[in-house]
Amino acid sequence: MSKILIADDDPNIRELVRTLLKNAGFDTIEASDGRDALAKMSDANPDMAVVDVMMPNMDGYELCRHLRKYYENLPVLLLTAKAELPAKVKGFELGADDYLTKPFEGDELLLRVKALLRRYKIETAQTLTVGLLTVDRGSFSVSLGGAREDIPMKEFELLFKLAGFPGRTFPRDQLIEDVWGYDFDGNERTLDVHISRLRERFPAEKYGFKITTVRGLGYRLEVTV
Q: Which domains, from first to last, does the chain contain?
């Protein structure tokens, strides 16, 4: 049973989210702000975090930054009353996986929670299937219908990163750091070239997925079959 951390300074919101999650079969742990959430992380060992943006002491953005730094494989869903694009971009740039605007429907919250948990389960696997393509991190190869193919390493790493989280938007800076390293001294054009090569190598009509450009932010992989 998955355990989910709920970080929100509003006790009514915490109660609402707790009730929705418990009725869906999840365990929960609650925190009243970002500092409280970080203090409970090691003992609680949650599988996911649902985080409010506007909190005292440490807000949701700062908490998200800490969680992504120290708990890389923890899915983070941000809750906020701010629907403006800049607020969403900031959340994604700090490592949030998804964004839900208040007020929200309970069914939508549960759908997003379940989707994020599935994405991260895929990411921790050595082999994953995206569309009609199988991507094997053990052999650094891809295959379609049993026909195996080796592709350049950076293209493979970029594909595996995107395919591990279908539907998630990755900021350009994050993809560059994750694939080329924090000390990469090239420019964003390198990322664009590799994305173009992946698109040419794996056309959507044949492989069942496409890589979409998110203007002003980065890229995401979408399954089309």
A: 3-123 (3.40.50.2300), 127-223 (1.10.10.10)
